[in-house]
Amino acid sequence: MGELFGTDGIRGKVNVYPIVPELVLQLGKAIAAMFDTSDARKSGILIGKDTRQSGAMLEKALTSGLVSAGMNVFHLGLIPTPAVAHLTRSMKATMGIMLTASHNPFHDNGIKMFDGLGFKLSDRIESKIERLLLDKTSKDSHVQVDHLGKAQSVEDSSRLYIDYVKNTIDNQNLNGLKIVLDCANGASYLVGNSIFSELGVEVVETAVDPDGLNINNNCGALYPETLSGLVQQHGADVGIAFDGDADRVVFCDAEGKVLDGDRILAMCALDYERRGYLSKNTLVVTVLSNLGLHEAMKSNNIRVVTTAVGDRYIVQKMRSAGYNLGGEKSGHIIFMNHSTTGDGIIGALQVLKIMKETGQPLSELSECMHEYPHRMVSINVRKKRPLGELVRLSEATSECKAELGDHGRVLIRYSGTEKKIRLLIESQEEKQVQKWIDTLVTLIRQEIGT
Prior knowledge:
Blueprint lengths: L9 E4 L7 H14 L3 H6 L1 E5 L5 H14 L4 E6 L2 H10 L4 E5 L8 E7 L8 H12 L16 E3 L3 H11 L10 E5 L9 H7 L3 E5 L17 H11 L3 E5 L6 E5 L4 E2 L1 H15 L6 E5 L4 H9 L3 E5 L3 H11 L3 E3 L5 E3 L8 H15 L3 H4 L8 E7 L10 H14 L3 E7 L5 E8 L2 H18 L3
Parallel strand pairs: 2-3, 2-4, 3-6, 7-8, 7-9, 12-13, 12-14
Antiparallel strand pairs: 1-5, 4-5, 9-10, 10-11, 14-15, 16-18, 17-18
């Protein structure tokens, strides 16, 4: 990670550096300088955004920077992040950019970038763009007026994505299924209902009235308890909740039980394995995935490969080794046969397809793994000091690892997008989980907490 780029692009509070229009304009110029060929300028940059009030401000600043440096710009409008990735590839654009802070509240925003193949930019390319931006190489460079780029809207962007996503399950008729769909007042609110209802699903919508300020506000993937109540109230078969940019998804079954990404990954891996679709018989997950998922895969002779936290690292491993299924506990699920990044809508369709074909409710399908008791907490910190410098925390962590042994684990890491530290404790014994959460949280707050 550099000075500006985190694990998922650039992100922060709006109108606080670096999410200020002045820097975003210069970022546009730096991107244009990075891709300074006539073909790249002509193919242009696609820009999508979620429903945050600040999106229009950043979109205009970014567009100004790009166009002033001779780059064509194509506006996709309000659209999910995975739609930007898909359309970048299908339209043969030079790059795709999504203005979003994902699951964060409205006062944050960010910039996610995709290469011409629809994959998140590599660390190497991000570093080059950051260097061009910070050393002001492109700050005062301008093109002659007759070489300015053009900006235009892609009027049918939503329809292109809707049709593509439906085709990932061969437009299968899902008639007979009833869902509650929580769009988090975010980027999926325009396309979500269309996709599911056109496939025959009965849809009860919630959180589809964005006002620029209510994205992720007590709704969406971070608040599944709301979804749970609505599923039971409406007698639905399943609840589906996206985050603000719809690159992740969380489910709950007909009884209202919330299911995270691990159970969905287990279901999909077993389904792929049964049908002979699971490339190299391997599932890719991060270090945060529950030990119960590993046990379930082992018992079904499915290999599990582990990466660092972040869907970009999962995708990198999948690409380099030729795997086609991976994801995170948080709900980023990557079906590489269909998408180059996490896509909550594609994940939801895959689950509904399994339910339709097997005739089993989600509650039965999700029993394919036993989940170890666990807790994960996020703690605000003053500064991201190297963990090795935190002597008392390091000593306690070693004691925790020794006590848990092979039947549990502790993971401590800094967030790549926020000024927070994340702590995960997992054990076969619930009492051990609570004991060590209390102990380690106390020490973190004493040593580096705000």
